[in-house]
Amino acid sequence: MRDVDPLSMAEEARKNLGTVLDPARRSALGQFFTPPATARLMASVCNLVRERVRLLDAGAGVGALSAAWVAEICARPVRPREVILTAYELDETLIPALRKTLIACARACAAAEITCTWKIHATDFIAAAVNDLDGGLFCTEHSVFDVALLNPPYKKFHAESRTRQLLRRLGIETSNLYTAFLSLAVLLLGDGGELTAITPRSFCNGPYFRPFRQHFLQHVSLTHLHVFAARDAAFREDEVLQENVILHAVKGVPQQPRVCIVQSHTPDDPIRVERDIPFERVVRPGDAQVFIHLVTDGEGSALAEAMEGLPCTLADLGLCVSTGRVVDFRAQQWLRARPTPETVPLIHPTHFDNGLIRWPKADTKKPQAIVSNLDSASLMVPAGVYVLVRRFSAKEERRRVVAAVFDPATVPCEAVGLENHLNYFHEQGAPLDWMLAWGLSLFLNCSPLDTYFRQFNGHTQVNATDLRSLRYPTRDTLIALGRRVQGTLPAQDALDALVVDMLKVG
Ligand SMILES: C[S@@+](CC[C@H](N)C(=O)[O-])C[C@H]1O[C@@H](n2cnc3c(N)ncnc32)[C@H](O)[C@@H]1O
């Protein structure tokens, strides 16, 4: 057979898959295959030098990552003598192409005088890894790998699912396949072993990923994070709109003092901005949430320092942030399209209007009112001034954090229902002072806050935990800010100038 380079072989297989793959199965198995430029970039990040290297490619697809890694090591001046490739792939329709890629890998290795053996496990990686790592009485040793190269499937699973129960056997708490794959790969690595993975950025913050972050950082030293300026850069042809990150970490060594953060527009962009950042700027010491901050430039660093240097936590201000209590499908029986004498206003993100809540709205299909009686009372908050923040923003929206003031002077009511797609700031359950609310809204709506927020939040969801983790100006400063505007949100430039002038955080 003609010698074909393994990555071209995997790429040909990937291109042919479009016609073969069933879209439903594709979504169930989280199948987004790595294009060659991204695979090459990932392989180039692995720098382990050993005589014998055991590679783990879990969720291997058609083998693009194994192929890129083999191409990379064959081209290096210092090469291993022996490589052992282990691929796990659950979808049997991909196995013939994966086999062809691994055969091409072995040929490429032979040409570079490297002995190569390979094995495909056409099975569930999670079940196999858990069994391997938790083999019970009769198993004393589990497989050990030197390099794990992953583009794991992205898919949520339920708290009651078998996958979740399997992972609990190893004390792994996570609800997404990609973090499950990463946690298991880390456990399967030997000391000094390297993990390189491309994943969504969502693990960097958010309460659901906290156990994962803790587990992960307990086992590895984070060395390298590569972010793409364009949201869809890593998987262009698959129209993946997640923000992705390539991470590289080394198992079983103490966390190194500095982490390399790289930003490029696309994987093959020759222009890259690389910065070595102290680890404490990536994960703040003592941060109970263990957020991972991705600061890509010097200005970003200065901004982070200014935002984190603000004097108050939310608790210092005596304030709280909660998620709106009205979940549409649970409160169905109380919801009404329009206000009636027995209802109070129900506020959705659709009622946001340039920094204020305008209610009711003429052109919305959302129920705009909620019956107020003894049974629904627990869903209401007392009438008064609150600052509301949308929990979800549209992908390409200018700002991630969008706040508006709810003011009973504009929306007269005795109580109000706040829908679950909103977070709201309150004073221990009670409404806010009007001036304080406007100052807080200005602060939340300013561009520096938004830029800073994106350093640790790579998706479009704004969690109450994220807002709780921020630092804030003092109450007096917020009130002084609120005093500068008379109940209307200034244009963005003017707003930014006001906040920057008052806080010196620009
Ligand atoms: C995001 S794709 C990446 C494929 C390949 N690594 C690449 O980079 O092109 C994830 C792959 O994991 C496979 N997969 C999903 N769940 C799996 C499981 N539980 N065990 C093994 N493979 C799985 C999917 O079929 C898919 O091929």
Notes on the structure:
The protein is of the alpha/beta class. It folds into two domains: 6-296, Rossmann fold, CATH 3.40.50; 320-503, Alpha-Beta Complex (Adenine-n6-DNA-methyltransferase TaqI, Chain A, domain 2), CATH 3.90.220. Helix content is 32%, strand content 22%. It has 16 helices and 20 strands. The strands form four sheets. A nine-stranded mixed β-sheet has the order 3-2-1-4-5-7-6-8-9. Strands 11-15-12-19-16 form a five-stranded mixed β-sheet, with no helix packed on it. Helix 1 runs antiparallel to helix 5 (95-111) and helix 12 packs across helix 15. The protein is elongated, with a radius of gyration of 26 Å. The structure holds S-adenosylmethionine. The site of S-adenosylmethionine has 22 residues, from helix 4 and helix 6.
Oligomeric state of the chains? single chain
Tell me the total number of β-strands: 20
* Computed CA radius of gyration, to the nearest angstrom: 26 Å
Distance between the termini: 62 Å
How much of the residues is beta strand, in percent? 15-25%
- Write the CATH homologous superfamily of the largest domain: Vaccinia Virus protein VP39
Mass-distribution shape: elongated
Structural class: alpha/beta
| Main sheet properties | 9 strands, mixed
Bound molecules: S-adenosylmethionine
**How much helix is in the residues?**
25-40%
Kindly provide the name of the CATH class of the largest domain: Alpha Beta
| Poorly predicted runs | none
| CATH architectural type of the largest domain | 3-Layer(aba) Sandwich
Integer average pLDDT: 91
Give the domain tally. Answer: 2
- Secondary structure tally, helices: 16
